[in-house]
Amino acid sequence: MAERRKLIAGNWKMNGLKRDGLDLASDLAGRLKGAGAVPFDMLVCPPFPLLFPVGEAIADSPLALGGQDCAPQEKGAHTGDVSPAMLVDAGCRFVIVGHSERRQDHGEGDAAVAAKAAAAHAGGLVAIICVGETEAERDAGREQEVVGRQLAGSIPEGATAADTVIAYEPVWAIGTGKTATPDDVAAMHGFIRRALRDRMADGDAVRILYGGSVKPSNAGELMAVADVDGALVGGASLKADDFWAIATSCR
Ligand code: PEP
User: Out of 6, 29, 237, 250, which could bridge 233 as a Cys pair, Cβ 3.0 to 4.6 Å?
Assistant: First the structure.
């Protein structure tokens, strides 16, 4: 069985100005440094304008930096987009692609997500590829069919455990306070693990994160579920105490 170190990732979404981001990231970086050896990696994904100042503030700490999206192109006439190389330049090692808010708000389908992940890999970034079913799809019993299709279409050729993380985020659990039960999470993460093993030579070593209303009160039981290798956290990642409590619930 592959050893997978837990990854606790904070998706700040479109929240905070420079002062907020610097305060939050510096607080977390200080806690991480002070804690010494911990059984998890910690990552923050601020909005684009905050990447450079936050990246500079945490440069000498173990706290990692990531983008919330990237363009599939290297450079050029793509107004409003940000390339993987720009993220690396700001200090990023990770980038989230295919978040359900991007899929919904910007019409990004699996092929677009795969192109972004491939560009991230080519640029030297770890792509956190998000998948997850809607409430209607789960109610219809189609959650594995939907997630299976998203995985097949969103993971680019040549992806490895070193450059790819999967985040399972049921859309109905994001920002709603509703959380999947540990049994539901176990069933889906087991399904994703089998799909990764079929697809990738090192599929056993790929980290699979759970996301959707993770908070200090439910993190311990969720992080203890088989094949849950960490969390992608939205709302609760904006409070240092909550995000730290989620991370330290990892054993
Ligand atoms: C997310 O943004 O990926 C997320 C899971 O949000 P929340 O934790 O707020 O549900």
Answer: 237
